[in-house]
Specification:
The protein is α+β, with helices and mostly antiparallel strands and 314 residues long. 60% of the residues lie in helices and 16% in strands.
């Protein structure tokens, strides 16, 4: 549970001890006491803030009954505790007449970096401009994580060529799930941004509209990259599945041939081992028939493998 207050003072973002006018209130997994404190100071309905704490909440924009603008965006996160390394969570943004409130379910690098390293010229007094800068940072984070996933998948593929273990396949499956999460969230964010651009939920200047259009371009680019990487990864996993199946067929064929070749000397050994009177009439009964049959079997096996691998390499 983390709650922090930030405000632009003399052109720099500074931390505050308590809520002030024209400040940014950043809430990470707030409890009921913190929600009550913020809602009473900012005049916001507590249900609006709690809605952003629902992990399954989708992206949308709405005007509350008290005239505040409420925007929910899906933001990317890195989750090392799960098999799916990259995922998304909702980020609630409430824009009042005197405050900017962000509510998130989990701590994430994006908001932490936005606090410690805000964009140049960011001002909490320009609330719409602040929102646009935050949206732009979200879109850039998607692109950054998508490039990371592409590099990770390439590394896994190189290891899979050598090892062909289940571990690499599971890791590729986790990357594929992450791409599905990203694709779904990016589509929802794109719809929300289109509504903001075409609607009247935010009062925007020409510069704000230009920034929002840039954000939409970044989101579309991220969505296109996500679809391309997903298609490539699906094709790669299908190819590896075919390779594994083909290798299994080759191994089974080899084992079948060896089994058939070993059946012949086994039959001969079994026949010579029977306690029968006519056995003395069999050839090689009184001489070294065992070394002879063993030599024949080795010659046949050697001839098979020499023919197979020698001519296959050529």
């Amino acid at each position: 549970m983390v709650i922090s207050f930030w405000k632009t003072v003399n052109g720099k973002m500074q931390s505050l001890e308590d809520i002030e006018d024209n400040c940014w209130i950043n809430m990470i997994r707030p409890d009921d006491v913190e929600i009550r404190k913020v809602t009473e100071a900012a005049g916001v309905d507590p249900a609006v803030l709690r809605a952003a704490l629902d992990e399954e909440e989708t992206s949308y924009v709405d005007i509350t009954d008290d005239g505040h603008t409420f925007i929910t965006l899906d933001i990317p996160i890195v989750d090392d505790s799960s098999s799916v390394m990259y995922s998304t969570i909702p980020l609630g943004i409430v824009l009042t007449k005197a405050h900017i409130i962000t509510v998130c379910l989990k701590e994430n690098m994006m908001l932490s970096e936005f606090e410690s390293n805000p964009p140049k010229g960011l001002n909490t007094f320009g609330r719409t401009q602040f929102i646009m800068a935050l949206m732009f940072r979200v879109a850039n984070r998607y692109l950054q994580y998508l490039r990371q996933m592409n590099k990770i998948s390439d590394s896994i593929e190189e290891r899979l060529y050598v090892s062909q273990r289940n571990k690499e396949v599971i890791e590729l499956l986790g990357i594929q799930k992450s791409l599905v999460f990203f694709s779904t969230s990016l589509k929802a964010n794109q719809t929300t941004l289109d509504k903001i651009l075409k609607g009247k939920s935010l009062k925007m200047t020409e510069d704000d509209m230009d920034t929002l259009e840039d954000v939409l371009i970044e989101v579309r680019q991220a969505l296109e990259m996500c679809n391309i990487y997903s298609d490539i990864l699906s094709g790669t996993m299908d190819a590896f599945a075919s390779m594994i199946s083909n290798n299994l067929n080759v191994i089974m064929k080899t084992l079948t041939v060896i089994t058939i070749l070993m059946t012949i000397p086994t039959m001969v050994f079994s026949y010579y081992g029977m306690n029968m009177e006519p056995l003395g009439l069999l050839p090689f009964n009184n001489v070294g028939w065992f070394p002879f049959m063993l030599a024949v079997m080795l010659v046949i096996l050697f001839g098979y493998f020499f023919k197979r691998y020698h001519f296959t390499k050529k």
